[in-house]
User: Which sequence fits this backbone?
């Protein structure tokens, strides 16, 4: 039967371009930081779970093989997850399953991408998206969201500015745009109408890592744990007649299953901070609605009122989010570990005061893969 | 002694596989759909009855990043499903599904492995598994490294070229009874040894013929397994380990990671009637047999094994299916299935299967 699992170590590289560092160096830096945070060494690790987006992004097939040495995995199990853009969060969840199943006490999980070694937009333009890239796929859906919700066009600009201002507080963030403003965003080139250049995520390098451990081993690590209260994943087909690509059933189902597991009845009230996968600005209000945090058509009002700013009642992407750093394969894990940072009180200058319960989220493919988890400073928080 | 399953034990309750096609002209998703439909039909359950689905495949074989996304169409995802994917052989998907079911809240999982290698040059693709900075530029692909490994084995006095040819002759003879095999038939050791070298001391027939294919299985927790089948095949041990990527740091004539996985899975806890080994190069059988501690009383690769057909990314999962089929049919009571990844057996998975009520 499932047993509790907690995050006891977190490691992140900087997400700027890292040309002088090998893939091995990149993942090892994040892994060593996470181990140091957990006050453990590779010898304490029972299994490694690694995730990244398509192998073609760096041109290395099944990189768990060549990275096994750098990750201290020799003699151990190493497991490799790939679920498109959601992979970082899926990897965190798979690692949690290894612990919760009772088979492995302490698991190191690492995700990465090194976009400077390849051309991600080429890769993202292959296959199902038919040459249009991620922005080309999502732009018509964003337009449809705007039509349905009657959201004013400045909502996207506001998200773009908010996340970049948050990123100024995060030393790991790729983008540090000191002079970001609504004017700058709306005057930046239009890439895929209505998505401007500054409403899009950057191409980043970087690795993110966590150490997860079972309840009886938590006390080995001196720093505060983030308890994994629950996780959920849902997938639907990328395309079929009648598919609602705005209010996506898999996203609704995923959130519903997660809240039920954790015992959340009013997510806006009971969750203190959220890290949502927002690669294009408009996905903030879209996921607020798409994951049952706001009523249908009301998500953009939360953004407009400042509810999603640090200091608002539902802060979103205090770390700067995907809009400020996007090492694709790691981006979902960064959402999960930044949620953990918030409840451990280790989020530095972007800490939400007194955060006890936080949500980490990622999506992928044609907005068809969802992976979410909720972490807390307490194993059994009181939601009443 | 008969295995007495506990509440948290997991059994294989259904299996399906396609033929190992030298070239399948339809898309990969059709291969998957063929397996999934048969699996659900045989078990008499609906798609909704499956609580967790997980697949293993390799985008690079199709030359298309996110190729696995299309595979979801073959597995069913409407209404939305709880699902995941490993960029590994389907045997590793089974590993995660097996752990997931042990959490207790879900009682049936579906595991799929699929690969369509015919559109690509698989040897070129798997060359890209090598470390991109210092190994890949040497041209050291898995077949080349296999040749070096076979040479080391012969030099160490652990095998002869005739021993390696014997593995191929046995595989092909056994494959005659396997309708899914790609290569089968009687061939003598002398005929095999007369063939020219490819990656000396290996010859072309020592390398598995890459194929297009899929395999899938259903697993269930004890009580649900008993409802779904009269012949559950229990997974009594499952472990996998990796060793160094750098061949120079390894004893290539042994498989330390297989030994560790075998110990973790409890291979030595009982007699092994049958073993299916993921041997993509003939000499690997000799190394694996020693590392798994298998004696002459264990039947090795009665399906013919990968040397008779290698549906890449489904090959490891197929080993598990081949053992499970024999136990379910009552031809064996305990067996070992092995899956491998990487050059020269870098990563190995060992699964122990057993009969039991």
Assistant:
């Amino acid at each position: 039967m499932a047993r509790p699992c907690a995050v006891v170590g977190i490691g992140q590289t900087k997400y700027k371009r890292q040309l002088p560092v090998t893939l091995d160096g990149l993942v090892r830096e994040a892994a060593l930081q996470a181990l140091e945070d957990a006050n453990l060494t590779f010898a304490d690790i029972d299994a490694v779970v690694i995730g990244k987006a398509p192998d073609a992004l760096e041109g290395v097939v099944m990189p768990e093989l060549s990275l096994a040495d750098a990750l201290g995995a020799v003699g151990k199990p190493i497991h490799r997850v790939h679920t498109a853009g959601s992979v970082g969060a899926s990897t965190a969840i798979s690692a949690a399953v290894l612990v919760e199943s009772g088979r492995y006490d302490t698991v190191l999980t690492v995700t990465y991408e090194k976009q400077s070694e390849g051309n991600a937009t080429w890769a993202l333009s292959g296959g199902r998206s038919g040459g249009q890239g991620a922005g080309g796929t999502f732009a018509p859906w964003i337009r449809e969201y705007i039509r349905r919700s009657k959201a004013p066009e400045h909502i996207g600009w506001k998200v773009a500015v908010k996340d970049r201002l948050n990123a100024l507080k995060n030393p790991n963030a790729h983008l540090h745009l000191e002079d970001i403003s609504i004017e700058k965003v709306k005057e930046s080139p239009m890439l895929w109408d209505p998505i401007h250049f500054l409403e899009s995520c950057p191409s980043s390098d970087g690795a993110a890592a966590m150490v997860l451990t079972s309840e009886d081993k938590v006390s080995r690590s001196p720093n505060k744990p983030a308890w994994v209260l629950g996780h959920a994943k849902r997938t639907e087909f990328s395309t079929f007649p009648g598919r609602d690509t705005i209010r996506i059933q898999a996203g609704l189902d995923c959130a519903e299953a997660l809240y039920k597991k954790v015992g959340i009845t009013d997510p806006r009230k009971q969750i203190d901070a959220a890290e949502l996968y927002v690669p294009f600005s408009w996905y903030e209000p879209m996921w607020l609605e798409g994951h049952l945090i706001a009523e249908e058509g009301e998500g953009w009002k939360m953004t407009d009122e400042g509810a999603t700013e640090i200091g608002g009642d539902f802060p979103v992407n205090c770390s700067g989010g995907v809009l400020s750093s996007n090492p694709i394969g790691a981006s979902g894990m960064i959402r999960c570990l930044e949620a953990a940072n918030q409840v451990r009180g280790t989020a530095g200058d972007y800490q939400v005061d007194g955060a006890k319960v936080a949500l980490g989220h990622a999506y992928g493919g044609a907005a068809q893969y969802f992976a979410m988890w909720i972490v807390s400073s307490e194993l059994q928080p009181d939601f009443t | 002694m008969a295995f007495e399953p506990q509440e948290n034990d997991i059994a294989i309750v259904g299996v399906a596989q396609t033929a190992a096609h030298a070239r399948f002209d339809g898309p990969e998703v059709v291969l998957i759909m063929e397996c999934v439909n048969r699996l659900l039909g045989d078990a008499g359950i609906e798609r909704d009855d499956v609580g967790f689905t997980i697949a293993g495949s390799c985008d690079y074989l199709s030359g298309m990043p996110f190729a696995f996304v299309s595979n979801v169409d073959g597995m069913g995802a409407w209404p939305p499903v709880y699902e995941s994917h490993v960029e590994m052989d389907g045997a590793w998907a089974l590993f995660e599904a097996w752990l997931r079911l042990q959490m207790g809240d879900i009682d049936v999982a579906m595991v799929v492995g699929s690969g369509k290698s015919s559109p690509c040059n698989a040897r070129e693709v798997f060359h890209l598994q090598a470390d991109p900075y210092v190994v890949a530029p040497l041209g050291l692909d898995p077949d080349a490294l296999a040749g070096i490994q076979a040479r080391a084995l012969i030099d160490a006095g652990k095998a002869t070229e005739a021993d390696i040819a014997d593995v191929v002759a046995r595989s092909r003879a056994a494959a005659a009874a396997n309708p899914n095999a790609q290569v089968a038939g009687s061939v003598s050791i002398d005929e095999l040894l007369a063939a020219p070298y490819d990656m000396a001391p290996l010859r072309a027939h020592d390398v598995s013929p890459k194929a297009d294919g899929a395999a899938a299985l259903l697993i269930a927790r004890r009580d649900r397994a008993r409802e779904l089948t009269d012949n559950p095949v229990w997974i009594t041990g499952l472990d996998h380990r990796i060793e160094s990527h750098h061949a120079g740091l390894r004893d290539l004539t042994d498989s330390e990671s297989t030994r560790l996985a075998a110990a973790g899975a409890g291979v030595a806890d009982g007699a092994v009637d049958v073993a299916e080994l993921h041997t993509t190069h003939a000499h690997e059988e000799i190394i694996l047999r020693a590392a798994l501690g298998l004696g002459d009383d264990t039947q090795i690769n009665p399906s013919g094994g990968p040397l008779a057909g290698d549906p890449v990314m489904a090959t490891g999962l197929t080993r598990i299916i081949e053992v499970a089929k024999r136990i379910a049919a009552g031809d064996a009571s305990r067996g070992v299935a092995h899956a491998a990844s990487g050059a020269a057996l870098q990563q190995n998975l060992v699964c122990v299967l057993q009969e039991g009520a």
Observations:
- Chain B has two domains: 10-120+210-232, 122-206+235-355.
- Residues 28-43 of chain B form the longest helix (16 residues).
- The mean pLDDT of chain B is 97.
- Chain B touches chain A through 59 residues (CB under 8 Å).
